[in-house]
Amino acid sequence: MKNNNSTTSDTSSGTLTMRDADSLLARLIRKIVQGPKGWLDLARAASSKFVRVDQVQAAPIRARKPVVQPARKPVVQPARKPAVQKSRPKPNLAPFHLYIPFAQNAELDAQDFAADVYVAHGVQAIPAADAMAIACGGRVICDCIEIPSFAQRVLPSNWSRINTRFIDRTVEGYLRHCDSLITVGWELGKELETYGRPVHVIPNYRYAEELQPSNRLREKCGIGPDTPLVLAISNITSGLEAVLEGISGISQPVHLAVMGHLKPAAYREKCEMLVQELGLEGRVHFFDPVPYDELTSTASAADVGLIVRDPVIPNNFVSLPNRIFDYLFSALPIVTPDIPDIARIVREENAGVVIEGIGAGGWRKGILQALEYSAEMKRNALAASRKYVWESLEDQLFEALGRPKSVTFVGYTDLNKNNRTMRMAASLRKMGVTANVYTSFDAEMRRTG
Description:
- The chain is an alpha/beta fold.
- 41% of the residues lie in helices and 12% in strands.
- The protein folds into 3 domains: 21-47, no CATH class; 96-205 and 392-448, Rossmann fold (3-Layer(aba) Sandwich), CATH 3.40.50; 216-385, 3-Layer(aba) Sandwich (Rossmann fold).
- It has helices at residues 18-34, 36-47, 96-109, 126-136, 161-177, 186-192, 216-221, 240-248, 265-277, 295-299, 314-317, 322-329, 340-349, 360-372, 374-385, 394-400, 419-430, 440-448; strands spanning 117-121, 139-144, 180-183, 199-201, 229-233, 255-259, 284-287, 304-306, 334-336, 352-354, 406-411, 434-439.
- A 6-stranded parallel sheet has the order 4-3-2-1-11-12, with helices on both faces. The chain has a 6-stranded parallel sheet with strand order 7-6-5-8-9-10, sandwiched between helices.
- α3 runs parallel beside α4 (126-136) and α8 (240-248) packs across α14 (360-372).
- Residues 69-88 are annotated as: Disordered.
- Keywords: Transferase.
- GO terms for molecular function: glycosyltransferase activity.
């Protein structure tokens, strides 16, 4: 009878049961105690429980058929087109490629132009004036003839935006380090006060003169003395379209003479086309500028003078152009947009009309009003011209420059053709001050001989 609670061993099968394992473990312990002889007996007994490896018949090994891999077609890679390198434009260094060499040359030439004061004509000349002052000593004063920021000028430059921001930030730093600033108008003077330097206003008054009326302009236009003639002096960059439309709406045969340049060339073409569209071909006349000493005499033949400027443009809003005084000295009533400095003079002197808005209707109404009161306004304009004379500013200029013994005017452009600079230099020389002019043209002549 079998005991269900026992674990049996089957020696015939060659398997080792749990009971066998326990028995072998017990015997192992006894034999270990008996020493080497006991180990040998134990090994013999254990070997009888297992099938010998050499008695196991190995299964036959079947030879495998070789696996033939199908031939792979070579993968043809498409030829790569050479990468096209995008051509980058050459770095645009304008205007630094002009103003920095000018300043470097100014430093080299400083000893020959040493002075108590260096007056930079416009912000672009400050680096050169500053270089001279560092080399030889002296004070730097900037004559800010327009708003310092190039980004807010009337005609946008073709410089990159980066360059424009760069030079505006550079100019701001130079202005804050100037000893003082002078400028052409009171409204611009307010803007310049933000740089924290003393500001002196020296407007562009003309030398005192007796008006010599002439009929030359009417002769050029081919009109008689009774035909209304409106004059626009100076370079015009915008706003003339509204003037032309305003004149086309006047029933009287009013003529317009433009004495100056329309810039850029595309703008002139646009205005010329508008003249044709409005049917004003025989009533609008374009002329080149006349010499400065002939300006008032030539302009006096007109009935009204226009200030064609858009006050929305920051540089225009703070302007006080030469033309306001040219018109007064020509005895012309002035029609102008509401530009603060110009409007103040026109109203105070009752020498013209400040229009409301700069549309065609505003210009038409302003021109008609000026023509209606032309005789009175002409008298007022001529009377005002005796007040706004350059001679009245000479002492003020001398004080603004700090009562110097010597002054060098520094400008990138040819200052010998600049009326404002030449008036200043002449006035200072009359007071016994040594006044010299240094420009990029002088620097170039010294380099090339």
